[in-house]
Amino acid sequence: MIRINLLPYREARRTKRSQFLAAALLGILLLAALFYYGIYSIFSARVASEQTKVNYLQGVTTQLDSKIASIADLRKKRDELLAREGIITDLQDKRDMVVQVFNTLAAETPNGVFLTHLQQSGNSMTVNGYAEDNDQVAAFMRNIDASKIFTEPQLNIISKSKLGSEEVGQFTLQMNIRKPTAADKSAQTTGTQEVQP
Predict the structure, then answer these.
(1) What is the DSSP string of the chain?
(2) Res. 141 pLDDT band, cuts 50 70 90
(3) Where are the coiled-coil regions (predicted)?
(4) β-strand 150-163 against 124-131: which pairing, if any?
C-alpha cells in the first residue's frame, strides 16, 4: 500500500529545524550557565582564600602592634631607669665631692690665709677670706690651680681692711670645680679596695 503524505513536507522540515535550533540554543544556554557557574565558583574560592589570608595578616598585625606597644613601654621604663641611675650617680659623685672640696681647701690653704665664706653654684665656687699678705693669696691661687679638684682660679677683689687691730688683705676668689673623670673614679675605687683588709 502506498502512503501519501498530504501534509506539506516543508513545514515538517521547518518544525524539525526549529526544534533542533531550540534544543541547540537550550544546550548552549546550559553550557554557558555551567561555564559561568564554574568561573564564579573558582573566583569566589580565590576571594575566600584571599580573605582568610587578609584576616590572618590582620590578626598578626594586631599582635605585632601590641608587642610594639609593649616594647615602647619597656624602652620608656628603661630610659626612666637610666635617668634615675644617672641622678643617683651624680648624687654619689657630689656626696664624695663635698668631702674632697673641703679636704683640698684645708690642705691647699697656706698659713696666714683665713677663709670666711664659701658659696657654690653649679660647678663654680666663690671663696671669701683674709690674708696677711698678697703673696699668700698668690700662693693660695697657685695651690688651687695645681690641685686635682679646682681649676681656673680668678681673683675678683683684693682690698685692704682691718681685722681687729691688724691690717689685712680681704679677697674674693672664684674657681671652677672639676668633674671627676672615669680614670679618677677607677683610681678612687682601686684605692678604696686596696685600703680594705
Answers:
(1) ------S-HHHHHHHHHHHHHHHHHHHHHHHHHHHHHHHHHHHHHHHHHHHHHHHHHHHHHHHHHHHHHHHHHHHHHHHHHHHHHHHHHHHHHHHHHHHHHHHHHHHHPPTTEEEEEEEEETTEEEEEEEESSHHHHHHHHHHHHHSSSEEEEEEEEEEEEEETTEEEEEEEEEEEEPPPPHHHHHHHHHHHHHH--
(2) confident
(3) none
(4) unpaired
pTM of this prediction? 0.47
Give the neighbor-by-neighbor strand order of the sheet with 150-163.
113-121, 124-131, 166-177, 150-163
> Would you list the domain boundaries of the chain?
10-98, 109-177
Give the count of beta carbons closer than 10 Å to the beta carbon of residue 171. Answer: 22
CATH topology assigned to domain 109-177:
Gyrase A; domain 2 (3.30.1360)
Residue 44's pLDDT band, with cuts at 50, 70 and 90, is very high
**Per-residue confidence (pLDDT) for residue 197, from 0 to 100:** 40
Q: pLDDT digits over 169-196, tens only?
A: 888 888 888 776 555 555 554 554 444 4
